[in-house]
C-alpha cells in the first residue's frame, strides 16, 4: 500500500474544510469586533444626549453610518444603535444572510430635549 498516496488523499479531503473553518472564524470575529465598537459608540451617543448636544448626536451617528432608534419609557430613554455588517464566507452567509444586523442599547435619564430618529 502506498502511504504517500493515502496522505495526499487525506490532505485533499481535509484542506478545504480547514480553510473554510479558518475563514469562518475571521468572519465571526469581524462581527464580534463590530458589535463591541457599536457598544462603545452607543455609550458616546448617550453621553452626548445627557449633555444636551443634539447636533453632535446626529453628526456622530451619521459619521459612523448607524441607525438611531429612540424609545421613551417612564423615566428613562432607551437609545439603540443598529448597523449592518457584511458577511463574506459563503456558508456563514447562508446561515446569517448577506449582511448581519448588530444592535447596541443604552438607557439614559429623560432630558427635556428631543432627538429625532435617523433612517
Q: Keywords, please?
A:
alpha+beta, single chain, 119 residues, 3 helices, 24% strand, three-stranded antiparallel beta sheet
Explain what this protein looks like in three dimensions:
The chain has 119 residues and is an alpha+beta fold. The protein has one domain. Helix content is 55%, strand content 24%. It contains three helices and three strands. The protein has helices spanning 3-50, 54-64, 90-96, and strands at 67-72, 76-86, 99-109. A three-stranded antiparallel sheet has the order 1-2-3, covered by helices on one side. Helix 1 packs antiparallel against helix 2. The model has no long low-confidence stretch (mean pLDDT 85).
Structural class: alpha+beta
Beta strands, count: 3
From N to C, what is the helix and strand string?
HHEEHE
Largest sheet: 3 strands, antiparallel
What general outline do the C-alpha atoms trace?
rod-shaped
Overall mean pLDDT stands at 85
Question: In total, how many domains does the architecture comprise?
Answer: 1
Contiguous uncertain segments of 5+ residues: none
H/I helix tally: 3
Radius of gyration: 22 Å
Beta percentage is 15-25%
* N- and C-termini, Cα separation: 66 Å
Give the neighbour order of strands across the main sheet.
1-2-3
Oligomer: single chain
